[in-house]
């Protein structure tokens, strides 16, 4: 089986496992993530944190993002402009959210575009070495590459439930490794880059 085929198999299996978690349990798991990561992740006042507003059965990290805001972070969320481009628009309390395609919503075009210092990255599957499988479109990989091309090196924390772990993700040359993974069981640092 090729790396691409194995990734597709893992993606399908782990997303099905995530979908099978009852909604009320996902809420409790997301609150556990906020408890584990809310103070443990290094955030200085003014740190730009990219989170996301949940779609489908993703973890609802809004409680975690709220904790970061309380600690002085500036929040932003990814907006898919076209099939290949993500920008990160500032998420300000009280600002209206608009549909942004692919089932997502976020701040409108008048919101400031920020470059994240820390990215909370949704994923389909992960392994303990920090490799991730996304949703297959490569949006985050391209966004991270663009930030690197600008001389920026955001810290990357994968957001997933324990059931999304796989033994080993087949890494390809374009894949970017995570610095840590946050699940309902805790925060697992895979390098010394954070914390």
TrEMBL record:
Keyword Ligase among record annotations: yes
Protein name: 5-formyltetrahydrofolate cyclo-ligase
Single GO term (MF): 5-formyltetrahydrofolate cyclo-ligase activity
Binding residues for ATP: 7-11, 132-140
Protein's organism: Rhizobium freirei PRF 81
The keyword Endoplasmic reticulum belongs to this UniProt entry's keyword annotation: no
NCBIfam families referenced in this protein's UniProt entry, alphabetically: MTHFS_bact (TIGR02727)
Keywords, alphabetical: ATP-binding, Ligase, Magnesium, Metal-binding, Nucleotide-binding
PANTHER family cross-referenced by the UniProt entry: 5-FORMYLTETRAHYDROFOLATE CYCLO-LIGASE, ATPASE INHIBITOR/5-FORMYLTETRAHYDROFOLATE CYCLO-LIGASE
Enzyme Commission designation: 6.3.3.2
